[in-house]
Write a structure and sequence with these properties.
single chain; alpha/beta; Glutaredoxin; five-stranded mixed β-sheet; 5 helices; 28% helix; 29% strand; globular
Length: 158
C-alpha cells in the first residue's frame, strides 16, 4: 500500500479519446486526484464517477485534476463517459500495470473462479508529485465530497 509522503508512481495512460495522459505533466502545475474503480457502468462506479463530475468546477477552483482509472479499455470508457455526461477524464489501464504500482489489485474468488479485481481507492497527489492523502476500501456515496473537503482543508495541497 502506498502511504502519505511517498512519491506517486508516474504513468502514461490513454484516456477515452485515446489521448495519452501523463501524471508528470501535472507536476508543479496542479494537484491530481486519482480514483481507481473496478468497472465502468456498474452502480457504485457510476455513482462515484458522477459525483466527481458533479464537483468538477469545485475541484478546478482548487487547482486539482480528477482522473478515474480502471482496467476497462478506452472504447468502454468513452461509452461510459458519454452515457452519463461525465466531466472527469477516464484512463485505461488494461494490463493493470498502474493499478499494480498503486497497490489496488486484489484477488477475488467468485463461483470457484479466481479473478484479479481493482480495490476501490483514491490518491491525492500534490503538485510535487507526492501522495498527500490515500483512501482505501472507498465507499462511493459521498466520497467525492470528502476528497474535496480534504483538499480544501489542506490548502490546495501546497
Amino acid at each position: 500500500m502506498l502511504q502519505v509522503g511517498q512519491a506517486a508512481p508516474v504513468f502514461d495512460l490513454p484516456d477515452a479519446d485515446m489521448e495519452l495522459v501523463s501524471l508528470a505533466t501535472y507536476r508543479k502545475r496542479r494537484n491530481v486526484v486519482l480514483y481507481f474503480y473496478p468497472r465502468d457502468d456498474t452502480p457504485g462506479c457510476t455513482m462515484e464517477s458522477i459525483d466527481f463530475s458533479d464537483l468538477h468546477d469545485d475541484f478546478e477552483r482548487q487547482q486539482t485534476e480528477v482522473l478515474g482509472i480502471s482496467m476497462d479499455d478506452w472504447m468502454r470508457h468513452g461509452e461510459f463517459r458519454d452515457k452519463y455526461g461525465l466531466a472527469v477524464r477516464l484512463l485505461s489501464d488494461v494490463e493493470g500495470e498502474v493499478c499494480g504500482n498503486y497497490g489496488v489489485l486484489q484477488e477475488k474468488e467468485r463461483d470457484g473462479v479466481r479473478r484479479t479485481c481493482i480495490q476501490r481507492a483514491t490518491f491525492l497527489v500534490n503538485k510535487d508529485g507526492v501522495i498527500a492523502q490515500a483512501w482505501y476500501d472507498v465507499k462511493p456515496r459521498g466520497h467525492a465530497a470528502d476528497v474535496l473537503k480534504t483538499i480544501r482543508s489542506i490548502g490546495k495541497c501546497k
